[in-house]
Amino acid sequence: MHAPADRTGRIHAAAAAALALFCIWGCADRGPAVRQAVAMNTYVSVSVYDRDIPRALVEARLDSAVAVIRHVEAMASDYSDSSDLGRVNTAAGRAAVRVPSELSNLLRRAIAFGAERGGAFNVTVGPLVKTWDFLGEHPRVPPRRVIDSLLPLVDLAAVAIHDDSVFLRKRGMALDLGGIGKGYAADLAASVLRRGGIRHAVVDIGGNLAVIWDTPGEQYPPSVTVEVLHPRRDGMIFGSFPAGTCGVSTSGDYQRCFFEGGVRYHHILDPATGYPARGVAAVTVVAADAMTADVLSTLVFVLGREAGMAFLRNSPGVEGLMIVEEGDSLRPIATDGMGRIFRPEPAL
Ligand code: AMP
Ligand code: MG
């Protein structure tokens, strides 16, 4: 596991730029109050733009927002045996494990998304994710026989949840909330800010954004600008779009990947094959909340160009942008609503 800080433990100033999406403030005169952290295996940045709340109060809200993100990490990280989710995974095939209601509810929601479109979003991909080890020091393509032997463990029907007790019926099974947890945590952090009276803020957990932008007007610009990173040019922007209160998430083949034999292998797996989903470089989804956006960006990525765009176009309240590779160039494909607001970078 790579902690995204340098060897001195310092968080890189350009943290947000290293990830899928980030927001900029339209006014140069006065910046937001920003808190950066490393959590959930990625960079976290929480920015509050409200101008009429005392700074000390804003700082306290920022602390609470980061604390709630760390709480989700402690509950739902799959790389720690001591997290609630880790205990469920360790007991797979042996025993049911009692978990906090918050986790059983999150799991129910995650599993419900698995019913969509042939199970492209599947939180039982844990054994595959561990075997691919995208965050390891020397990731490599696992032998096909190993992948094939793990496919029977990718099985949502073998997850039994009764009240707050969770049982994975097969030994070796493992739940992985990597495709939903960051969005969920961003929403929780945004609610903490809201309860503290904050009305203009962006929570960014590794490119999963919860935007609160309630009262645009004289004091505040009409929207924040969300920048979509270029999937092939490190740190460069592919384009941007304006957003109000919403959730935004990007899933990309460039986020956690390695090359072998000139082929890119990345962390978004097709549960049907056990191999990285092919055909798309990145998907950005805008939805009412960050958790939905998080799940749908992963799901649409797995569905691929045709089925993924059809899914986005048929989802009420959801807009999206898919970036596909065509030879040496990249082509954006947008839903109607996104097409009206997306501005590609002129230099591209
Ligand atoms: P995201 O970055 O939100 O697209 O989520 C990708 C992460 O979710 C991966 O790093 C895995 O931990 C996990 N994951 C990979 N493939 C899938 C899948 N098909 N369904 C659900 N989660 C997945
Ligand atoms: Mg996701």
Features:
348 residues; alpha+beta; four-stranded antiparallel β-sheet; globular; disordered N terminus; binds adenosine monophosphate; binds magnesium ion
Give a concise summary.
This protein has an 8-stranded antiparallel beta sheet. Strands 1-9-10-17 form a 4-stranded antiparallel beta sheet. It has a 3-stranded antiparallel beta sheet with strand order 4-6-5, covered by helices on one side.
Would you write up a description of this structure?
The protein has 348 residues and is an alpha+beta fold. 29% of the residues lie in helices and 26% in strands. The protein is built from nine helices and 17 strands. The chain has an eight-stranded antiparallel sheet. It has a four-stranded antiparallel sheet with strand order 1-9-10-17. It starts with 20 loop residues before the first strand and ends with a strand. The chain binds adenosine monophosphate and magnesium ion.
List the helices and strands and how they pair.
Elements: E1 21-24, E2 33-39, E3 42-48, H1 55-76, H2 84-90, E4 97-98, H3 101-113, H4 126-132, H5 144-150, E5 159-162, E6 165-168, H6 181-195, E7 200-205, E8 208-213, E9 224-229, E10 237-243, E11 246-252, E12 257-260, E13 263-266, E14 282-287, H7 290-303, H8 305-313, E15 319-326, E16 329-334, H9 336-341, E17 343-344
Antiparallel strand pairs: 1-9, 2-3, 3-7, 4-6, 5-6, 7-8, 8-11, 9-10, 10-17, 11-14, 12-13, 14-15, 15-16
The structure holds adenosine monophosphate and magnesium ion (MG).
